[in-house]
Amino acid sequence: MADRDLPPIREVVLTRPAGSNAGLREALVAARPAGMPEPALVTQPLLAIQPLCNGGELPDALAAMDCGDLVVFVSPRAVEVADAVRSLVDWPAREFAAVGAATGRALAHVGRPATFLPDSSEDSEGLLECLRGVPMSGRRVWIIRGETGRELLADSLAARGAEPRFVAVYRRECPASKPPVPVGPACLWIITAPQALDCFAQLAGETDGSEPGLLDSNLLVINERARERARALGIRGPILLAGGPGAETLARAAWELIAERQSSPPRH
Fold it and tell me: Which domains, and CATH codes, for the chain?
């Protein structure tokens, strides 16, 4: 289906875990162009976050950590879960880094502002650029994350001579509850986590197979890697790049698509 044959966007689906979509919703409302019809904003989390029992791998990491180590937090949820295990103000390490502005705000909220906070982009590449010039040879870097992810960050730090150590503190899983969801080319799903794409594809496989279906929906993702992953999972609809996971960045990209489709109604 050519772009000019696609209908206006009538629903925008927010897919971050429960309790994490308010900022994006507010950004979408604030960025709405004057006179533009507002699509329905639907919250449909594609990931559920479950803290690991007894702090996961964190207690062992804290026992081995010293003041010269660097601690990297990959998400606000990583900060929240880790701080609940042991207040960050009592951690042995003295330097903290954040992937993205939201993670930086989470660190500041618990009393340990980020020593390193990228301003070029809100992903692993942005943090690596921020850390350029920081001595890494022989330095341990603890990466506080879920059970998977950020392999690029660890590999790149290792190439600079660091000793990266993953520390899993939570599990990401597809939600057990699967209510009816918006489908088709009039829907825009905003997906910011790679594993959420897997849950989206799983959800599509459990729909009734009607056409147009969930795989024909529009997706807004944060980078080219995510777009390639979505295509590999069989997603057929348009996949747009936002350029980053920040709420304002996502809102701006979403409204650009909504405006474009509003001004180019489908041919009959």
Answer: 3-47+176-263 (3.40.50.10090), 50-173 (3.40.50.10090)
